[in-house]
Amino acid sequence: MASIPQGSSTQHSATEEKNYTIPLIIVTILFFMWGAITSLNDVLIPHLKGVYDLSFKQAALVQVWFFGAYFLVSIPAGLYVRSFGYQKGAVTGLVIAAAGCALFYPAASSGYYFFLFAFFILASGITVLQVAANPYVAVLGPAKTASSRLTLTQAFNSLGTTLAPKFIAGIILGGATFLTAAEIANLSPEALTEYRLQEASSVQGPYLVVAGMLLALAIIFAIIKLPKISQGEDEDKQSFRESMASNIKAMKEFPHLALGVVGIFVYVGAEVSIGTWLVNYLGLPNIANMSEAEAASDYLWLYWGGAMVGRFIGFAALRYFRPGIVLCTCATVCTLLLLSGVFLDGHIAMWSIILIGLFNSIMFPTIFTMALHNLGKYTSQGSGLLCMAIVGGAVIPYGQGAIADSVSLQISFLLPAICYLFISYYGKKYARLYEEPKSI
Fold first, then answer.
1. Domain that holds residue 53
2. Which of 28, 54, 353, 374 has the most neighbouring CB atoms within 10 Å?
3. Do 289 and 422 fall into the same domain?
4. Co-location of 104 and 41 in the same domain
5. 3-class DSSP state of 230
6. Which of 186, 210, 232 is the last residue of a domain?
7. Dist CA 112 CA 26 (whole Å)
8. Same domain, 219 and 254
9. Judgement on whether residues 190 and 252 belong to the same structural domain of the protein
10. Is 7 helix (H, G, I), strand (E, B) or coil?
11. In DSSP terms, which residues pair with 230 in a beta bridge?
12. Does residue 393 contact residue 269 with C-beta atoms inside 8 Å?
């Protein structure tokens, strides 16, 4: 989700002109890893909800702490990377993310709020990693093929979000035996502690393995030779106050940027919120009445896998149709699918929600590029604002959790439907930002 810094350039000496296949493979693995880690939140949330007998709103705090780190850490991460370089930034991000994964081990015996702390540390590392690693993709080879390399790495990010729930959900949720609130109330303090320790311990092994893999990547990334990236002469020389004033001016001068920031906020929020509550939704008696393990390992991956498949379809569609029209169409379909999931039952409702992933595929890059269209000198500020809007992934799931607690989980899916309605409006309103693509 991070963008490539504006004004960055590559410094290649004659001896540096070489085949960067191996460095590109390593960077691609990074994209795969943070995609896998992010999607595992959707497995852990229903697990922790059952272990600690949480409300939907309390369980949503996982996404609040996780995506809140994107908002809080992105600016310090940018300052760190500019001071110490992109390669050291990537190594630092990997080490911090590994530390966050390792903290899941003591969290199993320390309670839910320690888990939230571990999520924040993990997400902070991923934020630093994204700020540092994305530019490498652009410079690991000829400039004319940079877009294809970016597409490749994003595809592996989606592959990570697809495979992680499929293969790890069973390990975490397979042996879970959640007690009801009444059964928990009858346990002694000692028995309750033992029960929670036993159930929470299933996350320790998988996350220690991930921590080890991240540390191994950090070591490889630290020793491998990668090309240098120099910043543009005028980049990042504004003070914080000047930067904020410039951001406000940019949004006033370019309404499509201001609405694009809102669009990214509600899109990321809707996408994450649906993934967050999908396992619980499939467990509803009137939908599919599935166990958490079955829903996570057999169906959650289809939601994220749809986004991966949809990127290839969207790539072709965007060659022949205006981006705004494609965006409006996909968002409208998502709204209709959500309404089906809210007001219908059984397999029709179940597959309606799962299919949303397919139509999510083109939304983030399309909103991003539409919002940055013709910004000129404000492009860098616009990119930063759009990246900060990813905090929607913290806010919308929490809001949906609150609705689920007060009304019902099924009705709560009206909130992401409202988000997609705004995206549909944005796509239609700014459909003519670009020239009409050539017809087939």
1. 1-232
2. 353
3. yes
4. yes
5. strand
6. 232
7. 34
8. no
9. no
10. coil
11. 9
12. yes
Instruction: Please give the Cα distance from 423 to 331 (Å, whole number).
Output: 6
Q: Considering the domain boundaries, does residue 436 fall inside one?
A: no
Identity of the residue numbered 9: S
The DSSP element (H or E) to which 229 belongs, if any, is strand 228-230
Residues 223 and 272 in one domain: no
Domain count, the chain: 2
Distance CA 263, CA 267 (A): 6
Query: Residue 253: CB partners within 8 Å, gap ≥ 6?
Result: 378
What DSSP assignment string belongs to 168-213? HHHHHHTT--PPPHHHHHTS-HHHHHHHHHHHHGGGHHHHHHHHHH
**125 within a domain of the structure (yes/no):** yes
Contacts of 214-219 with C-beta under 8 Å, sequence gap 24+, read 214/33, 214/94, 214/95, 214/97, 214/98, 214/101, 214/125, 215/94, 215/95, 215/98, 217/26, 217/29, 217/30, 217/33, 217/94, 218/91, 218/94, 218/95, 218/98
- Give the CATH number, domain containing residue 353: 1.20.1250.20
What's the average model confidence in pLDDT over 82-109? 91
Residue 307: the pLDDT is 86
Q: Considering Cα of 241, then 245, then 250, then 256, what sign does the dihedral take?
A: positive
Q: Name every residue whose Cβ is closer than 8 Å to that of residue 208 and which is 6 or more positions away in sequence.
A: 101, 102, 104, 105
Q: Which tens digits make up the pLDDT trace of 224-277?
A: 877 665 544 444 455 556 666 667 777 888 889 999 999 999 999 999 999 999
| 256 plus 144 within the same structural domain | no
Q: What is the pTM of this model?
A: 0.84
Collapse the DSSP code of 344 into the 3-class scheme (helix H, G, I; strand E, B; otherwise coil) and give the result. coil
Q: Which of 203, 232, 261 is the last residue of a domain?
A: 232
Q: Is residue 37 in a domain?
A: yes
Is the CB of residue 271 less than 8 Å from the CB of residue 417?
Answer: no
3-state secondary structure of 233: coil
Decide: 404 and 281 in contact? Cβ < 8 Å: no
Q: How much is the pLDDT for 58? A: 96
**Residue 224 region, left (φ>0) first, then alpha (ψ -120 to 50), else beta?**
beta
